[in-house]
Amino acid sequence: MSDTKVSAKTPMQMLKQDHRTVKELFAEYGKLQAGDRDGREQLFRKINEELTIHSEIEERLFYPAVREVPTDEAQDLVSEAVEEHHIVKTLLGELSDLDPGAPAFEAKMTVLRENVLHHAEEEEKEMFPQAKQLPKDVLETLVIEMEALKNDLEDREEQDSE
Fold it and tell me: pLDDT tens digits for 65-109?
């Protein structure tokens, strides 16, 4: 689990760190041998947990803030991002029901990876510049709220896995 006790300076930096974490997990997954069912299952669980927490933070806090940016582009980017989250959640649900050794599991993991990497790149290149238009005090409050929610969600995940 990533360490969220260290404060990010902006919401965008916090989300970028989450993106890096997930990219690293996907890269680790890609290095696994085809027959490493346990390794695949373990990494899928980590990826699922990271993406679930990340998307909840974005949907509950970051996206509503970006919707406050008075541009059509900000509105369109948030709407598209919410739809991309829906696709990722669907894939995560389907993957959770599959055996990690099944051919369909590998195919869905590839699609998940491609979707997530596209989504992260689009957020960083297109949505984050929109978010930078928010007032400094809004961004400062937002990062505090996002860190608190992330800590709460990580604590809940840890309790659920015990």
Answer: 999 999 999 999 999 999 999 999 999 999 999 999 888 999 999
Q: Summarize the confidence of residues 103-123 as an average pLDDT.
A: 95
Distance from the first to the final alpha carbon of the chain: 15
Query: The CATH number of the domain where 97 resides is what?
Result: 1.20.120
Q: 148 in helix, strand or coil? A: helix
pTM > 0.85: yes
Q: Is residue 17 part of a domain?
A: yes
Structural domain contains residue 5 = no
| Domain span including residue 50 | 11-157
Give me the number of domains the chain comprises: 1
Residue 1 has pLDDT above 70, yes or no: no
- Asked whether 57 and 143 are in contact (CB, 8 A), the reply is no
In-domain check, residue 2: no
Cα dihedral across residues 141, 135, 61, 157: positive or negative: negative
3-class DSSP state of 71: coil
Chain centroid to CA 5 = 18
Q: Has residue 4 been placed in a domain?
A: no
Q: How far is it, in rounded angstroms, from Cα 100 to Cα 150? A: 28
